[in-house]
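Quick one, probably user error.
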């Protein structure tokens, strides 16, 4: 079963429309960013719709791929001019596990720690993914300069 631990200020993110898993992931991502001297990411409702839609589509159609984050984001009226995306999936994952996976990959780390990215949308869909029950499919869509 995929479980995300809720941490202190995650309730503020929930008030802005994130579920508890997304709020925990946002808090963990921002802790890493601020630890590297970067600005925290702010929730963007347009990117939120794009990320949630992508995670749901991957779960429904049982695939794992980036596709065109810019096209999805722009279709939801998000502003760029630059977009980025990190994906993850697994069973029994936590927010810290997801962020650690991204930090261990040079490409994903570069997206997470890009100074120009200031806005974010998160989508986490739970279910059976490629034969694994209790899986989480995670999309983080970023925008900025």
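Nope, works fine. Designed sequence:
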């Amino acid at each position: 079963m995929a479980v995300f631990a809720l941490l202190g200020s995650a309730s503020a993110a929930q008030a802005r429309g994130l579920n508890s898993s997304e709020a925990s992931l946002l808090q963990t991502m921002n802790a890493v960013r601020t630890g590297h001297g970067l600005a925290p990411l702010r929730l963007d409702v347009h990117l939120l719709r794009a990320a949630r839609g992508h995670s749901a589509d991957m779960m429904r159609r049982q695939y794992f791929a980036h596709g065109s984050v810019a096209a999805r984001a722009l279709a939801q009226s998000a502003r760029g001019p630059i977009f980025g995306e990190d994906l993850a999936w697994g069973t029994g994952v936590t927010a810290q596990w997801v962020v650690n996976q991204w930090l261990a990959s040079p490409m994903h780390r570069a997206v997470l720690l890009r100074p120009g990215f200031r806005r974010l949308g998160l989508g986490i869909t739970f279910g059976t993914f490629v034969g694994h029950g209790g899986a989480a499919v995670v999309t983080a869509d970023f925008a900025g300069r």
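Helices lie at 10-15, 20-35, 45-61, 69-75, 95-104, 106-112.
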